[in-house]
Each structure stands twice: as structure tokens, then as C-alpha cells.
């Protein structure tokens, strides 16, 4: 298997023992095989999601980058053997979604009532 390393080149990770150090270096069978190309984008507003966890720089109609995304040093850690969890609480988000749905329904009822009042007012004023 290959992963992207610093400088854009692939890192070959075939071997018996495989370890990823917190700084992103990859050790295969006791030998350093390379380091993960990890960056932190400082100006994220110039990125556009293109799918499959991939991003691209926003481009103009000629295909030229509108602004280059500044890469900064990676301040985090790489943790081997961990699963990434969701960054939201499912119960809290469900409660928020139900609250928003109820607010939306209340707004619909208000608009419907106002529409009925306007219809009644225009019909009754027309008879007078």
C-alpha cells in the first residue's frame, strides 16, 4: 500500500511491522519509510469541498486559483490505532432538529392564519 508523503511522493508501507509516530513519521520494519504530508490550511475560505474528503482551491472561470491557500505547520498529533469519532452529540443534534421543525411548523401556521385573515378581510370589505 502507498500513502502520500512529504514532497508529494508515495511512501511504501509494505512490511511486517508498521508504526506511525505522533509527528507523522512512518516506521516499517524498524526503518523510517517517510513522513506523512500533513499541513494546516490557514485561510480555509479559499477551499472548496470536491467530495471523498478531498478539497481544492477555489478557481476562477479560467481555472486559475483565485487565492493560494497558505499552508502552516501542523500543530496536532497523528494517533495510530484510533477511530475518529463524530464531533457532534447525536442526542443534542436530534433535540435541536425537533425544536427547529416545531419552530418551522409554528411559522407555517402563522402564515396560514394571516393569509386566511387577509382573504376574509378582502372578501368582507368587498361586500360592504
Walk me through the structure:
- It is built from 1 helix and 9 strands, in the order βββββββββα.
For the largest beta-sheet, the strand count, sense and barrel status come to: 3 strands, antiparallel
The total of helices stands at 1
The coarse silhouette is elongated
Strand order of the largest sheet: 3-4-5
**How far do the termini sit from each other?**
84 Å
The percentage of residues in β strands lies in: 15-25%
Mean pLDDT metric: 83
The number of E-state strands comes to 9
The helix/strand order is EEEEEEEEEH
- What value does the Rg take, in angstroms? 27 Å
- Category from helices, strands and their pairing: alpha+beta
Low-pLDDT runs: none
Short summary:
The longest helix has 38 residues, at 90-127. The chain has 1 helix and 9 strands; from the N terminus they run βββββββββα.
Topology summary:
Layout: E1 2-4, E2 10-12, E3 18-20, E4 25-28, E5 31-35, E6 40-41, E7 47-51, E8 54-57, E9 71-72, H1 90-127
Antiparallel strand pairs: 1-2, 3-4, 4-5, 6-9, 7-8
List keywords for this structure.
single chain, 128 residues, alpha+beta, two-stranded antiparallel ribbon, 1 helix, 9 strands, 30% helix, 24% strand
Amino acid at each position: 500500500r502507498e500513502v502520500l508523503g512529504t514532497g508529494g511522493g508515495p511512501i511504501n508501507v509494505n512490511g511486517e511491522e508498521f508504526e506511525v509516530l505522533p509527528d507523522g513519521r512512518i516506521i516499517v520494519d524498524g526503518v523510517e519509510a517517510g513522513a506523512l504530508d500533513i499541513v494546516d490550511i490557514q485561510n480555509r475560505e479559499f477551499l472548496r469541498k470536491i467530495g471523498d474528503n478531498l478539497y481544492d482551491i477555489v478557481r476562477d472561470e479560467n481555472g486559475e486559483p483565485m487565492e493560494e491557500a497558505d499552508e502552516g505547520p501542523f500543530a496536532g498529533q497523528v494517533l495510530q490505532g484510533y477511530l475518529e469519532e463524530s464531533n457532534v452529540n447525536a442526542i443534542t443534534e436530534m433535540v435541536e432538529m425537533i425544536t427547529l421543525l416545531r419552530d418551522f411548523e409554528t411559522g407555517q401556521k402563522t402564515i396560514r392564519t394571516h393569509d386566511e385573515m387577509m382573504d376574509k378581510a378582502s372578501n368582507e370589505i368587498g361586500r360592504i
